[in-house]
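Posted in: Protein Modeling Q&A

I'm a second-year student putting together a small comparison for a lab meeting, and my supervisor asked me to include a predicted structure for Zinc ABC transporter substrate-binding protein. I've never done this before, so apologies if this is the wrong subforum. The sequence is pasted below exactly as I got it from our records. If anyone can share the structure token output, I'd also love a short note on what stands out.
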Amino acid sequence: MLRIPSDRFFARGVAALTLAFAANAAHALTVFACEPHWAALVRELAPHAQVRSATHAGQDPHHIEARPSLLAAMRQADVALCTGASLEVGWLPMLQSRSGNGRVQAGAPGMLMAAEFVSLIDPRPGAGGSPFEGDVHPEGNPHFQLDPKRMLSVAEGVAKRLQQLDPARRDDIQRRWEAWSADWRGRIAQWERKAAPLRGMRVAAQHTTFAYLWGWLGIEQVADLEPRPGTPPSAAHLQRLLEQTRAVPPRAVVVATYQDARGAQWLAERVGSGVPVLQLPSSVTDDGPTATLAGLYDQLLDRLLAVPR
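Accepted answer (user: helix_wrangler)
Welcome! Here is the predicted structure, written out as tokens:
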């Protein structure tokens, strides 16, 4: 069940935006996406929209500078789509406040948090109150873009909100959502058949970036290179991991493309012969085989399946 706010502020906002777009049916929605996977999703559902991604796949979305160019984009946005679950807490509120754009303030109909549409793993109520805790999210792990089933739920929620905000294109968005969701469900079935050999695979990884991917595929993360969330691997922590995993080495050591791979390389070289370091994308890229959501999943599976047994 989609959780769409029903308070009076939200209802008035939807009505106001609906009237504005109805008065100018030729107006294309301007969408500010906090991460490139959300930009890619909006382009699938509403290709007429003008979409700007605040970040790229080579950046850590926890730590982004609220640059003037992002502030300008936020000022112009009709809609903003972000992850939520405190992923962007270090920079999104500043952009919202300084933009002065009422359409994308917290609680406004044009401000969408993808986390509203899914359940999250590993919630930590009360956490995140101290900078010494690192990148801890009390709501739960925000990296759910790497679970295709949760992506389906997000896409449905986003499609419904876009239909509310752009009634002139309601039918077109509905058709695109239905076609995309049917194709996506078929891809999920194909991916799961293809990935069957990965079930039970043991990996070490940095952070919990790929936790949803591991859960979907049945992969076990046996070690985290970070001594605490968001903190780079230390020599002492890596030494402890080496002692813990040497008897039964992981098949691979995994980091995201935006993470420094030196700690992973140190562990892989010592934990067992031939253990590879995989730098995997966690979001879509501007070009190449991971430039689409489907291509991102294809690449992730291909890279994991290529790891020697």
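A couple of things worth pointing out for your meeting: The first strand starts at residue 30 and ends at 33. Strands lie at 30-33, 50-53, 79-82, 111-113, 202-205, 220-224, 252-256, 277-280.
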